[in-house]
Write a structure and sequence with these properties.
Layout lengths: L2 H16 L3 H13 L1 H23 L4 H5 L1 H23 L16 H7 L4 H14 L5 H29 L6 H17 L2 H5 L7
Helix pairs in contact: 1-8, 2-3, 2-8, 2-9, 3-6, 3-7, 3-8, 5-9
């Protein structure tokens, strides 16, 4: 990979990592409900999980969807079901002092596993491989994974930190409930790409 191509990959990784999507919506909500420190495993799970996903996609794992179309349908159904469940959990997060148990923040493994049913993550991985690895090699795939892991973590941390910053204003239970329901609706809205998700396999 040439230097120019690598710099372009870094720019792609930054733009796709920092813009709104399911991961960042959930990190914003987690920052509000649990604070930045308790959201760190969630952030690490996203970065490491997506890096592994990008590496495996580069090696050709997405070819499964080309040879077995029903697998793509199964992925879409799993994505919709899991994201609706996450939206329900976010919407029903209890405000402090309401006397009912609050859900725990997403763990490292949960966040890493979520990447495989996250339509934006699939689009990012497939886009990176198609645009920056026209002839994928294990070393090239590893470079893409490392670039994304390095850029992704500080990019997604911005969203969790923003949530942390909103905590004081959202101490009012009514405001917090409104915020959580808004995040849930936005997460459901982000399901739209999964309905149009295609799995072109190149290289």
């Amino acid at each position: 990979m040439t230097l120019d191509l690598f710099l372009a990959l870094v720019g792609f990784a930054f733009v796709t990592s920092v813009t709104p999507g399911p991961n960042n919506m959930m990190l914003l909500a987690s920052g509000v409900n649990f604070g930045l420190r308790r959201t760190v495993p969630h952030m690490l799970g996203i970065s490491v999980g997506f890096a592994l996903m990008a590496f495996l996609v580069g090696l050709g794992i997405a070819g499964i969807f080309h040879s077995l179309p029903i697998a793509l349908t199964a992925l879409k159904l799993a994505s919709v079901a899991y994201m609706l469940w996450l939206a329900w959990k976010i919407a029903h997060s209890a405000a402090p002092g309401e006397g009912r148990a609050r859900p725990n923040p997403m763990t490292f493994l949960q966040a890493a596993g979520f990447q495989w049913v996250n339509p934006k993550a699939w689009a990012m991985a497939l886009g990176a491989v198609a645009a920056y690895l026209p002839d994928p090699t294990p070393l090239g795939c590893l470079l893409v994974a490392v670039a994304f892991a390095t850029i992704n973590l500080p990019s997604v941390a911005v969203w969790a930190a923003a949530g942390q910053g909103l905590r004081r204003w959202l101490q009012d239970p009514a405001r917090l409930r409104t915020f959580n329901w808004t995040m849930a609706v936005l997460l459901v809205a982000s399901l739209w790409p999964v309905l149009r998700l295609d799995m072109p396999v190149g290289g």
